Amino acid sequence: MSETHSADDLIRLFNQTFSLSENTRLVCCEPEPIYRPADNDTPYHRIVFAHGFFASALHEIAHWCVAGKARRQLEDFGYWYQPDGRTNEQQALFEKVEVRPQAFEWIFSQAAGFRFHFSADNLEGDAGPSDAFKDHVWQTVQRMLTDGLPARAHQWAQVLATTYSQGRFPVTTDFDRPLHPDNNQAW
Asked: What is the rounded CA–CA span in Å between residue 158 and residue 177?
């Protein structure tokens, strides 16, 4: 991470943007990321990211942008989570639900001028992010930017672009299609 990509800046920017309008705050730091809806002890929703990592914050915000209003009332948006060490079948299910969040994360990373990495979130398992998964994420990015981002995602990408990219909003040609490992050609 460069000195220009501070998790503290993301917290400030996110909270300035969404604290009042969405009653949601970005919060650091716990060993594992989690989303916690407002409750009797805390009157606002919390997107908690891990270890103060810039990329972790962008990823958790991406999940928040995917979640609809009902899911934002549930801890961790009501998602199932299979811990590290997933089988190939479990990894395939994981990748299926991770396409949209990672597409948002890639757009946010591009808006912030920050390097994006596909994540399998499966360090102990045999399966990494598959080539098909990477291509699905790329296709989703292309479709989202062509069709238009949902309001919260667009607003957040614009804040990032204004802060880190002199206002230049990401466009489809900013995203290189992942290469097929057998021939180093785009799918």
From this structure: 23
- Rounded Cα distance between 185 and 187, Å, is 6
Rounded distance between C-alpha atoms, residue 181 and residue 155, angstroms: 35
- The answer to whether the Cα torsion of 28, 11, 156, 23 is positive or negative is positive
61 touches 68 (CB < 8 A): no
158's torsion region: left (phi>0), alpha (psi -120 to 50) or beta?
A: alpha
- On whether the CB atoms of residues 101 and 66 are closer than 8 A, the answer is yes
CB-CB contact of 150 with 104 (8 Å) = no
Residue pointed to by tokens 């993301």: 10
| Contact residues for 16 (Cβ-Cβ < 8 A; gap 6+) | none
Domain boundaries, the chain: 7-174
Q: What is the DSSP string of 126-145?
A: S----HHHHHHHHHHHHHHH
| Residues 36-71: tens digit of each pLDDT | 999 999 999 999 998 889 999 999 999 999 999 999
Q: Are 76 and 56 in contact (CB under 8 A)?
A: no
